[in-house]
Hints:
This protein is an alpha+beta fold. It has one domain: Alpha-ketoglutarate-dependent dioxygenase AlkB-like (Jelly Rolls, Sandwich). Helix content is 13%, strand content 31%. A six-stranded antiparallel beta sheet has the order 1-10-7-12-5-2, covered by helices on one side. The protein has a four-stranded antiparallel beta sheet with strand order 6-11-8-9, with no helix packed on it. It has a two-stranded antiparallel ribbon with strand order 3-4. Strand 3 (59-61) and strand 4 (69-71) form a beta hairpin. The longest helix is centred in the N-terminal third of the chain and has 17 residues, at 17-33. The protein is globular and about 50 Å long. The N and C termini lie far apart (36 Å). N-(carboxycarbonyl)-S-(naphthalen-2-ylmethyl)-L-cysteine is lined by residues 106, 108, 116, 121, 131, 133, 144, 164, 166, 170-171, 173, 175, 177, 195, 197.
Amino acid sequence: xxxxxxxxxxxxxxxxxxxxxxxxxxxxxxxxxxxxxxxxxxxxxxxxxxxxxxxxxxxxxxxxxxxxxxxxxxxxxxxxxxxxxxxxxxxxxxxxxxxxxxxxxxxxxxxxxxxxxxxxxxxxxxxxxxxxxxxxxxxxxxxxxxxxxxxxxxxxxxxxxxxxxxxxxxxxxxxxxxxxxxxxxxxxxxxxxxxxxxxxxxx
Length: 203
Ligand code: MD3
Ligand code: FE
């Protein structure tokens, strides 16, 4: 029984080692301009285990007072987000099958204990563009279900260099990261996993 939602594409090993290293250099330059920060859940203020930053004209942020949203500046430095690097624009143009470039690139950093609970991505104003995700560093156990929280889910590993395209009905599928597998990639000297998600936000 195939429980992958329609429009879900997993491209294992899409980026080779050289492309992963080059992309990691781009991400280091972004983090130097826009440091990783610890986001907090709306209302409760509970800190997430994943640290985040963004590049692009808009970035996804969350804090206790104002909740989930997109904004054009870093919540700690107040500076505009750095631009999306050419490497990621090229990737989007190759796999997204969408006429416009992405506006937002969320950079998630997972240490060995970090995880992300099952959720839908619905803070964007439009859902017609796909979400494109790139994994770097340690592997993770990823879970994807259907468009209802109660739908059955499938779990599989995402490895460094994998790309996932979430188009069609998969765009609103529930998904999450159950665990990181420490020591499964030599890419990051001190271990951990980086995930990049490219998105359209506005009309
Ligand atoms: C499936 N990030 O930032 S990326 C997120 O690995 C997020 O950091 C995860 O979920 C991570 O919101 C997963 C792959 C992904 C992204 C968006 C999706 C899978 C998706 C949207 C719908 C279904
Ligand atoms: Fe998500």
